[in-house]
Amino acid sequence: MDIFLNMTRFILLIISLFICSIGLKAQELQKISEAEAKSAHAKLHFKANANTGNYDVTYHKLEFTVNPSAASISGKVSTTFTALEDMNTVTFDLDDNMVVSSVTQNNNTVTYSQNANDELIINLENTLNLGAATTVEITYSGNPTSNGFGSFEVTTHGNAQTPVLWTLSEPYGALGWWPCKQDLNDKIDVIDVYITAPEQYTAVSNGLEQGTSLTPPGRKTTHYKHQYPIPAYLIAIAVTNYETYSHTVANNGNPFPVVNYVYPESLSAAQNSTGVTVDIMNHFINLFGAYPFENEKYGHAQFGWGGGMEHTTVSFMGNFSRNLIAHELAHQWFGNKVTCGSWKDIWLNEGFATYLTGLTVEHLDGEAAFKTWRNNAKNTVTSATNGAVYLSDIDTTSVNRIFSSRLSYNKGAMVLHMLRKKLGDTNFFIALKNYLSDANLAYGYAKTPDLIAHLEAASNLNLTGFFDDWVYQQGYPTYNLEWYQPTTNTISISLQQHQSDASVSFFEANVPIRIYGTNGETADVLLNNTGNAQTFVENVSFQVSNVEIDPDSHLITKNNTSTLNTERNIYTKYTFEVVPNPVKNILTLKTNASNLFKNLILYNAFGKKILETNKTEISISNLSNGVYFISIITGKGIFNKKVIKE
User: Fold this and answer.
1) What DSSP line would sit under 238-264, residue for residue?
2) Cis geometry, peptide bond prior to residue 68 (ω within 30 degrees of 0)
3) DSSP β-bridge partners for residue 115
């Protein structure tokens, strides 16, 4: 254990050094990802337990007795479950540091055993047949081994060093403090949570508070009820001297509260920060449908990590920044209503929550701020040349890899943005609403193919190649663009692509291009790049000065170049200039292709023709001062020039 703790401290040191190197925005996201991974260090090599797959949990009554001054818990967990096959024993995940003192089935004492694999094995009274249900009650106590590293934390806050206790069980920490079914293969239909603690403290958990009762000597029991399906890792408790206040979400006549549980020393700052939750909530409801737990509550409970954790109906918050509020609220749809069906699919939780933070920037701050957000995300993704959004089996044994801010969070978010651009807003948001409301997924689990199916159904696109390149494989493309104008009203663009990782032979993508003119004109085009050295010819109405790749950061790409082919470009091969400019009296046309010249037309600033001539020298002394335009008609097209008369 000492070796492991030293390794953990080293990992956290490396994370902190990385945070310092990438600036405030990346620091905030890193803290979010770090907090969501904290609880798992003690169970770094947890594997899905095949012995818990033969039953379906329908109900938990969770009775916990705790004191935020002591790193211990005593509990009584009553579990109702239905057999998925004939059963003589039932297995729960429970850290062997927790000591079980008794087990009953339907109020009758039964035998049990605990083993070094963190299993509690209960011998049932009789064979439980397929489809039958029963209830077992487990009484236990102990000091959770992960104390100090996440899943069950006891510390202090404020100058008064007030005790505080909280839990954070994602992804593998729930079994550290209560007997449960740890895997991502079951959700509990209903839970009742009873927290008994010293009466001066406020206790927080999932769902709606049902009431409190005094329990002598000097203790108080608080009852919460949650009536939506929930996985074990999203069940949480917190206890300290919280101050509470609420906001109300109107919710089209079906209001629900946003309840904030805040340290007293943070109350004023929190009250100035959390009001935006209502605006963000309304925006997410408009985009993705009803708040998934609208019959209960949403809320925030302050805790001691730098980031946050999206426990169902009550996110635990290390601060109340707008980005953190948006990120954890987003999880109530993506992660809590529809939960990733394996840790290999964690981007379905974290990529979405990160992208919805970006959508909040777009909603509240506008497109320019959203562009900056995308650019920061893209720079984080491309800070290394490898890495996939989707995890391998070995990746799931590394908590730091599961919660990689570069890949699971930022790359997942940018992939979603690229899908939005590829499908268009209408199809993209329809697909996500359908994904969230799918009867096979809602309040259950989803994997990446489930999302693909809804995106394809809404858009009529085949996205197999897109997901192979951008989700399942690694890296990103770099583009080398060469351009020239073969005529005065067209531009030829050739794209050469290089890949940062050998796992992808070619990234098919819609590549945004911005074309700039010599007189400040711009034109945006989208190139459907399906092969290397592909050439595109686009119409333009001006002389081009420059071409930029992905000017608004819509793609995951880096180190792009744009080069003019001067030998083939009409504006460099044939020169037509008017001098002097500005001009007072006589304007002269100079060219290296006099044999191509036909005539020129002079227009005023309003587009009215002033004169037309086939001469290369004209007098404009009689014209008023101001801006004029000249169209030079040639055998290769029309060359346009701006002239200033002074």
Assistant:
1) EEE--EEEEEEE-GGG--EEEEEEE-G
2) no
3) 119
Q: Show the beta-strand stretches assigned E in 295-428.
A: 298-302, 308-309, 315-317, 338-340
Instruction: Say whether the peptide bond before residue 217 is cis (omega within 30 degrees of 0).
Output: yes
Whether the CB-CB separation of 297 and 259 falls below 8 Å is answered with: yes
Task: Give the type of residue at 60.
Answer: H
The greatest distance separating any two alpha carbons of the chain, rounded to the nearest whole angstrom, comes to 111
Q: What is the pLDDT of residues 577-613, one digit of tens each?
A: 999 999 999 999 999 988 989 999 999 989 899 999 9
Q: Tell me how far apart the terminal alpha carbons of the chain are, to the nearest angstrom.
A: 84
- Mean of all residue pLDDT scores within the chain: 92
CB atoms closer than 10 angstroms to residue 205: 29
What is the rounded (10 degree) CA torsion for 607, 613, 618, 624? -30
Kindly give the pairing relationship between strand 219-226 and strand 208-215: antiparallel
User: For residue 362, what are the contacts with CB-CB under 8 A and spacing of at least 6?
Assistant: 369, 370, 373
Query: Is the pLDDT at 358 greater than 80, yes or no?
Result: yes
Q: Where are the alpha helices (DSSP H) in 267-346?
A: 267-271, 276-288, 322-330
Cβ proximity of 59 and 190 under 8 Å: yes
Pick from 544, 626, 636: nearest CA to 584: 626
Angstrom CA distances, 505 to 329, 472, 527, 530, 534, stand at 38, 13, 19, 12, 15
Q: How far apart are CA 639 and CA 646, in angstroms?
A: 23
Sign of CA dihedral 461, 465, 467, 469: negative
Of 488, 473, 448, residue with least CA distance to 574? 488
pLDDT tens digits, 180-232:
999 888 999 999 999 999 999 999 999 999 999 998 899 999 999 999 999 99
- The strands making up 490-499's β-sheet, listed across from edge to edge, are 534-539, 490-499, 477-484, 561-564
SS3 content of the chain, % helix, strand, coil (to 5): 30, 35, 35
Q: Provide the pLDDT for residue 305.
A: 84
Decide: 508 and 479 in contact? Cβ < 8 Å: no
Residues 601, 365: Cα–Cα separation, whole Å: 46
What sign for the dihedral angle of Cα 265, 270, 271, 272?
positive
The β-bridge partners of 632 are: 600, 639
Task: For 215-243, give the secondary structure using H, E and C.
Answer: ECCCEEEEEEEECCCECHHHCCEEEECCE
Asked whether the beta carbons of 621 and 611 are under 8 A apart, the reply is no
Euclidean distance between CA atoms 401 and 44, whole angstroms:
11
Under a CB-based contact definition with an 8 Å cutoff, are residues 344 and 395 in contact?
Answer: yes
Mean pLDDT value across residues 470-481: 98
Q: Count other Cβ atoms within 10 Å, centred on residue 126.
A: 10
Instruction: Quote the pTM value.
Output: 0.88
Residue 122 CB neighbour total at 10 angstroms: 20
Half-sphere exposure of 224 (CA within 13 A, CB side): 24
Letter for the amino acid at 427? N
